[in-house]
Amino acid sequence: MIRTDSMRGRVALMVAHCAGMVDLVALPLWVGTLISRFRFDPQQAGLLATLFLAGAVLASVLTAPRFHRLSGRLVATLGFAASAAAFALAAGSTAFGTLALLHGLSGMATGAALSITHGTIARSARPHRLFAMAGAALGVFAVIFYAVVPQALSSAGGAALFATFAIVMGVAALAALFAFPSPEAMPHAERAAARLTKPVWCGIAGIACMALVQAMTFSFLERVGSDHGFSAAAVGGVLVALALVNLLPAPLAALLERRWRARSVLLASPVLQALLTAVIMNATAFAAYAAAASVFAAVMIFAHTFAFGLLAWLEPSGRALAATPAMMMTGAAIGPVLGGTIVKAAGYGSLALAAAVLAAIAVFCFSRLPTPAQTATQEALA
């Protein structure tokens, strides 16, 4: 049996995390390619990305409650393999209807595999640390992705994007087949007693709000730069810088795990995220756009690492965090099509107002989260 604390198990989980969270890396290039290469309008392009994310949400909602009854290796292997097949078919199509169906199917397959991955990480001995390692791997993946894929798109056209996704999912399927670990055991009585409390639900809602702002802004990060008159080379450089910056937040979150309170990090993060959205969408100077865009995704990665560790502590069975794709992608699924609709109706600047409203909701939700010290005091007084 492969364990989560073994090198093989950790590598498999990191590869699976990178493949399952591909939208967090690729969304601006994904939507931008659908607009520029496939000639879809912003609303159509956002809808295709939304179908992938909605499929992942549905699969996660169905998979998470059954986490302890499913074979992690089997579900992860089959899920990533099915997603690879769907993206391979997408690489050979340009019809909106066909691409819509394949986006939905690949999203469902990916979501099931990612749910098992995150549930397994949550049941490890140090979930904050292991999730931070997976986040660091995602940063490395982002650097490689933006070093290779834009050039492939230039030489091979839009189909290269889906071919790349198919390869990524295929590699994850092989990693899961040969090295996916078994989660740490949990006594049956303790597992049966575990339930989702109100603070856990508030944490889930707050992450979903941040994910909505992330997807809504990130989907049009490349397009807004181009439409503001910045050159393709300059915008491409910003995407590369973003990928490099994304190497930092997860290791930093691991380093600060016991020095910064998770609740404080989560209260500040939505505000910073909304401010960065306002700069990105309204900046007329390239320097301001580049600075804000380069660190935008890092805020979500940093905050999500702390949220993952705190929720794993509040709900130790792993079922809540097996639903991580649902809590992330419910917001993310709405983001591309909502962002596209807002941009189409009122322009890029209006996204800043939407981000501010969602940030206020997220801060309220995170204010309901306790700290470990607060909970220990409450239990001592009970």
What would you say about this model in short?
This protein has 382 residues and is mainly alpha-helical. The chain is built from 18 helices and no strands.
In words, what does this structure look like?
The chain has helices spanning 7-20, 22-36, 42-63, 72-90, 96-122, 127-156, 159-179, 188-193, 198-218, 221-227, 232-245, 249-255, 262-282, 286-314, 319-322, 324-346, 350-366, 372-381. With 382 residues, it is mainly alpha-helical. The termini are far apart. The chain has a single domain (7-183, 195-377), classed as Growth Hormone, Chain: A (Up-down Bundle), CATH 1.20.1250.
Number of strand elements: 0
Number of helices: 18
CATH class: Mainly Alpha
Proportion in β-strands: under 5%
List SSEs in N-to-C order.
Answer: HHHHHHHHHHHHHHHHHH
| Poorly predicted runs of 5 or more residues | 187-193, 375-382
CA-based shape: globular
Cα gyration radius (Å): 20 Å
CATH superfamily: MFS general substrate transporter like domains
SSE map:
Elements: H1 7-20, H2 22-36, H3 42-63, H4 72-90, H5 96-122, H6 127-156, H7 159-179, H8 188-193, H9 198-218, H10 221-227, H11 232-245, H12 249-255, H13 262-282, H14 286-314, H15 319-322, H16 324-346, H17 350-366, H18 372-381
Keywords summarizing the entry:
382 residues; disordered C terminus; 80% helix; Growth Hormone, Chain: A; mainly alpha
